[in-house]
Specification:
A hairpin with a 2-residue loop joins strand 1 and strand 2. The termini are far apart. 44% of the residues lie in helices and 19% in strands. The strands form 2 sheets. Strands 3-4-6-5-7 form a 5-stranded antiparallel sheet, sandwiched between helices. Helix 2 crosses helix 5. The chain contains 5 helices and 7 strands.
Amino acid sequence: MKRRHLTDIAIAITILVVPLTGCAGQQSASKDLPTFSSIDEAYAAVDEILECDSEAAGNPVVPMGDGGRLASAQRVCSANVQIDLYPNPGALDESYQTWADSSQGKIPLVRGANWMVVDLSRIAGGQSSTMDLQGLADKLSGVYAVVGS
């Protein structure tokens, strides 16, 4: 009877631990996000998937931190979609948090190790974008999120 009870406990622990180790692997994989060495390289990769408007007018929104500009380089993909390149993980994290803390509306974005693609369509015009940022994230192995409120 005791042997059966110990076997049941061992099986229960195995069932509980195996899914948790799977989650741990997913977290470490998120640390291996892709990087770009230049804004032109980032733009080319995004353009290949989203088919950016080469004639897009407008200026990107500049994420600011305590020390000034957070992005080291920026480029627009469309009137409301921008690509930001960051000099270090701290600047990227601070910029991400700035977008997440925004109360201007929902902001879809894709994040890599040193870059972010931000879609401001809902804020600029109140309409959802036609850009498939989830597909972009899948193809570039980035992380898709909708932040802000």
